[in-house]
């Protein structure tokens, strides 16, 4: 599936967060949303990105943004990740990769000559009307909030 473009209606999704609560794109209607996809909880890049967003969460909220992280990890792993780093926002457990595939971020990757499927670290900024207003494909994990608020 191809990646949605700026100006497109954001693909709908639903799933459960770290507490097992059902969440969906519809639940963010009327709010700006930072929807970020990342490969795996508690890895160096993913931790740097999540901590950067969490440390700057007050500023993001002041600018009207909600934040939601999405990875294929399950609720239990997400809760451990949140507890370990005191993250201040929800993580969607997309174990079936429905949102990941809807946003076109399940891609072939390669490392050391080995090819495999994985999540392309990508952030979608969705406006109050559910329209994609920006896409960040070259995420700087330690400076991600600055990329969003540019």
Give the helix/strand layout:
Elements (H helix, E strand, L loop, with lengths): L13 E4 L4 E3 L7 E6 L6 H12 L1 H6 L2 E7 L3 H11 L4 E4 L4 H5 L3 E6 L2 E6 L2 E5 L5 E5 L7 H6 L1
Parallel strand pairs: 3-4, 4-5
Antiparallel strand pairs: 1-2, 1-5, 3-8, 6-7, 8-9
What does this structure look like?
- By secondary structure, the protein is an alpha+beta fold.
- The chain has a single domain (14-149), classed as Glutaredoxin, CATH 3.40.30.
- 27% of the residues lie in helices and 31% in strands.
- The chain is built from five helices and nine strands.
- The protein has helices at residues 44-55, 57-62, 75-85, 98-102, 144-149, and strands at 14-17, 22-24, 32-37, 65-71, 90-93, 106-111, 114-119, 122-126, 132-136.
- A seven-stranded mixed β-sheet has the order 2-1-5-4-3-8-9.
- A hairpin with a 5-residue loop joins strand 8 (122-126) and strand 9 (132-136).
- The longest helix is centred in the first third of the chain and has 12 residues, at 44-55.
- The protein is globular.
- The model has no long low-confidence stretch (mean pLDDT 96).
């Amino acid at each position: 599936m191809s990646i949605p473009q700026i100006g497109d209606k954001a693909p709908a999704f639903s799933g459960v967060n770290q507490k097992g609560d059902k969440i969906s794109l519809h639940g963010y209607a009327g709010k700006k949303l930072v929807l970020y996809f990342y490969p795996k909880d508690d890895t160096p890049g993913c931790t740097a990105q999540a901590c950067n967003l969490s440390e700057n969460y007050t500023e993001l909220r002041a600018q009207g943004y909600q934040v939601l992280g999405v990875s294929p990890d399950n609720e239990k792993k997400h809760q451990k990740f949140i507890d370990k780093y005191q993250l201040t926002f929800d993580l969607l457990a997309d174990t079936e990769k429905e949102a990941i595939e809807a946003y076109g971020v399940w891609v072939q990757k390669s490392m050391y000559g080995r090819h495999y499927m994985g999540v392309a670290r990508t952030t979608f900024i969705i406006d109050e009307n559910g329209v994609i207003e920006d896409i960040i494909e070259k995420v700087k994990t330690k400076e991600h909030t600055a990329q969003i608020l540019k």
